[in-house]
Amino acid sequence: MQTITILGATGSIGVSTLDVIARHPDRYRVAALSGNGQIDRLVEQCARHRPQFAVVAEPMRLAELKDKLHSAGLDDVTSLAGPEALEQVSTLPEVDAVMAAIVGAAGMRPTLAAARAGKRVLLANKETLVMAGHLFMDAARRGGATLLPIDSEHNAIYQCLPQPFTDAAEQGVRRILLTASGGPFRGWERERLVDVTPEQAVKHPNWSMGRKISVDSASLMNKGLEVIEARWLFDLPPERITVVVHPQSVIHSMVEYMDGSVLAQLGNPDMRTPIAYGLAWPERIDAGVAPLDLFQIARLDFEQPDLARFPCLALAFESLRAGGAAPAVLNAANEIAVAAFLDRRIGFRDIPRLNEETMHAVASRFDADSLESLTTADQTARDFADTWLARNGRS
Ligand code: NAD
Ligand code: MG
Fold it and tell me: What is the DSSP letter of 192?
């Protein structure tokens, strides 16, 4: 029996995780569930999964959570609130595994805490690695944590690498090929991208996901964040990471070896597959995912990514070459840019503009040696981006 905390339980990954867990009540027990805002959904999840703790991110909403748990007859669920509570439920001695599925930089501290505490960390929150890849990998090593990537591409690569994977050169790995669907605007003319709406941007052709990552997929920033994520997870320099646009999203990524072999992991685009893999590793369990029907898919296509139309991907590579706090700054700018785009304050093509200007103005002022430096870099980038928006965005 594995006891598990789910950070970001009310989101897209959280809901899929609970779906897989519910299929295996003999294997998994839920210790804690967290959410931000969607209290009713969190309470419903508590009724179904009976955790010991329910955590709401905003301390202001603790009373509401308590009331609603009480009304639902769930007085045995202890309600908690705030960032410290997220760290607390990620490090409880009885917890074996933590699903890190909060979106954005807000997920970093509890994820880091779980790594330090030596948990099995199911890592969906890619922003943790983008912001603090070096510190996080170090914390996981020292804490004795088991890291299982949940992002479908990284999960695929993990499955295609030799196990245990220790060193690319020694184990004959030449490079990894990260696949990208290309998002809803693949093949669109540059000019058409000027007035795309949030509704169009969040409508991903293959995956159903939260709003932030959906916009990131449309701008290719998501692939950029994933390149940075891969750099840390697999300790590979950016030259050994190639992005391949593959519109069907059937191959979730590949590993190329020195002898010319290329190993790929395939499956239907359903996050329950990587989630089930992470939960059960090194075993395999049913995820509720339909088998892949290759006859229906019939063909698989591959294209080069277009960096001129989707500059966010190039910015991510640039941030890796610059090193230091550049990826953290890029990530912070992008969080502000995506929120402003969803609020219709800026256009789609302003996202890379704001990201680039912020990175160039802020990144070189900070190093990545400490959490303090990275947190200050993150905040400085957000302040710069807010000022940029006040000047250039609609109010
Ligand atoms: P989502 O928006 O659907 O859910 C986010 C969750 O985080 C929710 O439970 C929300 O309540 C919580 N949250 C939001 N802001 C918070 C805050 N400030 N403090 C605490 N909790 C907060 O997002 P998602 O699509 O489930 O993505 C979650 C993470 O997984 C992201 O980092 C994303 O990049 C990554 N990921 C998602 C997918 C996917 O298919 N959805 C695939 C790969 C990676
Ligand atoms: Mg992904």
Answer: G
Residue 367: band (very low, low, confident or very high) from pLDDT cuts 50, 70, 90:
very high
The pLDDT value given to residue 395: 84
169: helix, coil or strand?
coil
Q: What is the pLDDT of residues 285-310, one digit of tens each?
A: 999 999 999 999 999 999 999 999 99
User: Which ligand 1 atom is nearest residue 10's CA?
Assistant: 9
Q: Running DSSP on this structure, what letter comes out for residue 150?
A: -
CB 293 within 8 A of CB 34: no
Say if strands 241-245 and 251-257 run parallel, antiparallel, or are unpaired.
unpaired
123 φψ region: left (φ > 0), alpha (ψ -120 to 50), beta (else):
beta
pTM above 0.90, yes or no: yes
**DSSP 3-state of 69:** helix
Question: How much is the mean pLDDT over the chain?
Answer: 97
How many Cβ atoms are within 10 Å of 136's Cβ, its own excluded? Answer: 25
CA distance 107 to 129: 10
Determine the distance separating the centroid of ligand 2 and the alpha carbon of 238, expressed in angstroms.
Answer: 17
- Asked if residue 83 has its Cβ within 6 Å of ligand 1, the reply is no
DSSP state of 292: P
Tens of pLDDT, residues 201-212? 999 999 889 999
- Contacts for 183-186: CB closer than 8 Å, 24+ residues apart: 183/217, 183/218, 183/219, 183/220, 183/222, 184/217, 184/218, 185/218, 186/245, 186/247
pLDDT tens-digit profile of 97-153? Answer: 999 999 999 999 999 999 999 999 999 999 999 999 999 999 999 999 999 999 999
Query: What is the CA(27)–ligand 2 centre distance, in A?
Result: 26
φ and ψ of 240, to 5 deg: -100, 15
The token duo for 379 is 């905040």
Find the helix packing angle between 39-49 and 12-22, rounded to 10°. Answer: 10
Q: Which of 88, 89, 102 to mutate to test the pocket of ligand 1 (most atoms within 8 A of CB)?
A: 102
81 vs 139: CA distance, rounded Å: 25
Nearest residue to 225 (alpha-carbon basis) of 243, 240, 207: 243
Where is 109: in which H helix or E strand?
Answer: helix 108-116
